[in-house]
Amino acid sequence: MVQSSTQTTDQSRTSWSFNRRTQYTNFEAHLVSGALGAEISGVDISKPLSEEVVADLRQALLDHLVIFFRDQKLEPAQQIAFSRQFGELDEHDFVKGMEGYPELIRLVREADEEGMNFGGVWHSDVTHMEQPALGSVLYAVDVPPFGGDTLFANQYLAYETLSPGMKKMLDGLTAVHSAEGPFGPQGRSKSNWKNMQVETSDKALIEVEHPVVRTHPETGRKGLFVNGTFTLRFKGWTGAESEPLLKFLFSHASQEAFTCRFRWQRGSVAFWDNRSVMHFALNDYNGYRREMLRSTIAGDRPY
Ligand SMILES: [Fe+2]
């Protein structure tokens, strides 16, 4: 008999065999969900940190995939200095940086804006680049009284819960990515994100290739590496052939059991590992203003 269940995953396998430390030398980590995410307490990230604290935070990022801080007060230069302790910073190809701080982009939605928000599709950042970001640091400057949460999804779990047959097929596949969807001449930024300094350009049509299954350069774990913003199709497949499998993978990879959800307050910071998570910005705060600052740490070529 063919099993008709639409359940794609054995839910009991979603928080297993995952090293989630809570005690570090210099701080504690409070888990946000069974799948990923931890709030770090006891670190003021506005100040220069010792090598030991930076190493511990880096370990926490690898253990939890996304780490959160509360009640921080960051000037632009301090956010840049914090982020630089984890690597070189990238400037965004299509969103202009802040005056005097090209490595910081302002993600703002004014109270009177309608339409799609920035980041409102499950995605990893900047996978249109040959070397997509290691991670992003997002700082909440202004938040709505409710809504505007960000969701994160663990892409190790997304891969590990697939069947052996699907894994085998995906292991040999390459995906084609570009920034055409958001930033191409007909991209979403044409009619959205009016208060951000976004440009559309033919540059967004440039295609790059990444493996569909990515080996994390620091943990050695495999994760799914396709996303709804930048992935166009599989290499050697047509768009029409690719679409059903991509659709399945996007929905599989963002299912509830793989996620955590972060409620922002003014001064909250999220720092995610862009190599092992996807994220999604909820658009449920019409009539209110939200402003975030993002810095992006340069990554390496996926393999
Ligand atoms: Fe994003």
Provide a short characterization of the protein structure.
The protein is α+β, with helices and mostly antiparallel strands. It has helices at residues 51-64, 76-84, 155-160, 164-171, 180-183, 239-253, and strands spanning 28-31, 38-41, 66-69, 89-90, 104-109, 135-142, 150-154, 174-177, 208-211, 213-215, 222-224, 231-234, 259-262, 269-273, 277-281, 290-297.
Which characteristics define this entry?
single chain, 8-stranded mixed beta sheet, binds fe (ii) ion, alpha+beta, 303 residues, Double-stranded beta-helix, disordered N terminus, 6 helices
Give the bound compounds. fe (ii) ion
- CATH hierarchy: architecture: 4-Layer Sandwich
* Global Rg: 19 Å
Which residue ranges are poorly predicted, with pLDDT under 50 across at least 5 consecutive positions? 1-7
Question: How many β-strand stretches?
Answer: 16
Counted up, domains total: 1
Name the CATH superfamily classification.
Clavaminate synthase-like
**Order of SSEs:** EEHEHEEEEHHEHEEEEHEEEE
Biggest beta-sheet profile: 8 strands, mixed
Number of helices: 6
Which class in CATH terms? Alpha Beta
The CATH topology turns out to be: Double-stranded beta-helix
Overall pLDDT level = 93
Termini separation: 39 Å
Note the beta-strand portion: 15-25%
- Helix proportion: 10-25%
Query: By helix and strand content, what is the structural category?
Result: alpha+beta
Backbone shape: globular
